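The authors assume throughout that readers already know how a fold can be written as discrete tokens. The format is easy to grasp once an entry is in front of the reader. For illustration, here is how one protein appears when written out as sequence plus structure tokens:
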Amino acid sequence: MSKMLSPDFDTNVNRINELLHIDQSFDLMYRTMNIGGKKACFYFVGGMLDSDMMEKLMEFFYLLEPEKEKLSINEWTKHCLPYGQVEFYQNLEDFLKKLLSGVPCLLVDGYDKIIGVDFRTYPGRGVEEPTKDRVMRGSRDGFVESLVMNIALIRRRIRSRELINEAHTVGTSSKTDVVLCYMKDRVNSQFLESIQNRIKDIKIDALTMNQESLAECLYKGSWLNPFPKFKYTERPDATAAAILEGNIVIMVDNSPSAMILPSSIFDIMEEADDFYFPPFTGTYLKFSRFLINLFAWLLAPTFLLLLMYPQWIPEGLSFIMLKEPPHIPVLVQFLILEFAIDGMKLASLNTPSMLSTPLSVVAGIVLGDFTVSSGWFSSEIMLYMAFITIANYSQANFELGYALKFMRMLCLITTGIFGVWGYVGGVVLVIFLVSWNKTISGKSYLYPLIPWNKRQFLHRFLRVSLPTSEKGQDFAK
């Protein structure tokens, strides 16, 4: 069957109704009417259009007088359709794609094209501060599930004609809208072309998990290395800053976060508060976060190593020794608590908000008091794991937090089995995994440390300003 429209109105209506299964899908609607002496049919998706605008257009249509002479579709649109965002579709595939994305479409007798009148609107929540990327100072807006609104939040901050928002469609069934955001004069053209080609080459039925499904399609390398390949943020200000630095941002419809690429480990660890405070304070926050995460990784393996070799403990630190011999091996205690903490996280996600506070109090009492008094865990180990748990929340990236958790467990296991050589081997293996990890652009994961770039290092860590000509000359560019 031909994919092109026919000039015959009734033929087009019957074909479209058959393609859309209009009698079976209650949310796909159509309204037949008479506009200026011509038969017309309005197709739309219930719940995805501005009802006030629809009412105004219908009122205008019913007041039109019959045409005195035949007009072309462009002339008819100018005379009979008082609306700005108008497109024409002659191919049925193009029409179906736009209609199912929410664009109301008007079919008029005598024309072999369908008119798309874009006054769609999507249901969604209001713009509010993200619960994860909170800041002490700065803007309080955040991305939502509406792609159009998210792009507007970026455009509001970057009022430049060089800002390009390039639309793509991914998924045979879902036809999910994906947008590449970049500064045309700052982005690396080769890297941009590579990402464009990867998106065009994606063969998938649907982006079931939104950005995670897209990330797995874009990155074809091994995922055995747990360190994240992308940075995600729900903050429009952080997204705009990344675009201005020459990065590419990918926005996916129905996802309230932006995917920034390429991203090194130092990009992933950055937060908005690092830049909303004066340079000295921001640098302190950045380095303190780095040191806290370093302690969270090494504290448990180091404590286990010192318990295995008590002769290495200085006399001034002898208080760190266990007061009572453990009933369960220290390594097993650490591993049990690692899993128990994840269990509490999962339980908190599924606990009704009205019960979260009393249940957390009960869990704290049980784990903090009864487990120690019963002999299951040592109080010192409970203390160290409490510090580690709090330290994991010092940075906002979930993927990086779990990567550090896996590395900590790896070092615990190798130390518990092989002693000092296991400790050294575990640390070396973690350094190897970080050093040999690559960004999606194939560049170093430790830039600007490796390879060394003095200007970018000072700009990134000490807030030293760069010339405008070098803004887009980062490792990704």
Observations:
- The mean pLDDT is 86.
- The two ends are 47 Å apart (CA to CA).
- The longest strand covers residues 28-35.
